[in-house]
Amino acid sequence: MNEVEKKSWLKTKSLKLKVSKEYFHHHSFEIVNTYNELKKNMLASLTCKISISPRIKLTGKFESKAIKAEELNKVIREQLKTFPNNEIKFEVYEENGVFYFSEENNTIGGFDFAILNHYNNILALRNLCFGSLHYSDGEKRWTKFLKKNPDLVEIANSLKRVDEKGTNIGKGTIENSTPLIVGEIQFGNWALAYRDFFKVLKADVQNSVDCLIYIVPTGNLEKLLSDGIVTFDKTKKIMEDFSKVISVPVWLIGIDVE
């Protein structure tokens, strides 16, 4: 990389983000296309012009163009927030069959984002707080969850059913077509991919996850980030090698820049 190329790159303020590759694992193609609006919104949020802070990285004696993964991660999260009706929740973690979420904190071991079936999720929380084998501080946990999520109070009020404390409530005949989608934006060390798949398999045990959306770099973007990171090709190979173990459908999305 010569001085002219270096100066030109350091003056770059933006790049065009795009979806370059897709891979569908274990029936995810049928699931994604069933929820066509979700697919359309996801692809649209990952196809845009993004602001960057260019830098130069040194690999051995060679200099090359680079951007910071942390900065890119934040930009993509902002793009996902453009989903209609605040459909996506961020910093989501699962505990005893209930998904909790908080945009303020980076939850270690959780998912970067999720689209939840709120009726089923609050029902699971209600049974943990007030059901047959409930938390001793169930009322406190229930109140804390609703304080953070006032938009879900109406659903919660219909499910609390104080007169039925000590009894679990079943789903009954109520139909809710909202899928349970969890997602990761992964630009870290390649070994983190294994952790992510174990994490979604654990969540699937009690919740039956409909699909994992896994967003990773490929092409030019892959070269702009650090070496030894999770990439589209590496992740695809993991899924192919462990196809019988990774039972959760996965929509693998490879993003690139122009």
Structural features, described:
This protein has helices at 3-10, 28-34, 36-45, 69-80, 118-130, 138-148, 153-160, 192-207, 219-224, 232-241; strands at residues 14-25, 48-51, 55-59, 62-66, 89-95, 98-101, 111-115, 181-185, 211-217, 250-257. The protein is 39% helix and 24% strand. It has 258 residues and is α+β, with helices and mostly antiparallel strands. The protein has 2 domains: 14-116 and 178-257, Restriction Endonuclease (3-Layer(aba) Sandwich); 118-177, no CATH class. The protein contains 10 helices and 10 strands.
SSE succession = HEHHEEEHEEEHHHEHEHHE
Bin the helical content. 25-40%
**Number of helical segments with 4 or more residues:** 10
Q: What is the total domain count? A: 2
| Fraction of residues in β-strands | 15-25%
Q: How would you state the average pLDDT, rounded?
A: 89
Named at the architecture level, the CATH assignment of the largest domain is 3-Layer(aba) Sandwich
Strand order of the largest sheet: 2-1-10-9-8-7-5-6
Low-confidence runs (pLDDT<50, min 5 residues)?
A: none
The end-to-end span amounts to 19 Å
Broad structural category: alpha+beta
Under the CATH scheme, which class of the largest domain?
A: Alpha Beta
Radius of gyration: 21 Å
For the largest beta-sheet, the strand count, sense and barrel status come to:
8 strands, mixed
Outline type: elongated
SSE inventory with pairings:
Blueprint: H1 3-10, E1 14-25, H2 28-34, H3 36-45, E2 48-51, E3 55-59, E4 62-66, H4 69-80, E5 89-95, E6 98-101, E7 111-115, H5 118-130, H6 138-148, H7 153-160, E8 181-185, H8 192-207, E9 211-217, H9 219-224, H10 232-241, E10 250-257
Parallel strand pairs: 8-9, 9-10
Antiparallel strand pairs: 1-2, 1-10, 3-4, 5-6, 5-7, 7-8
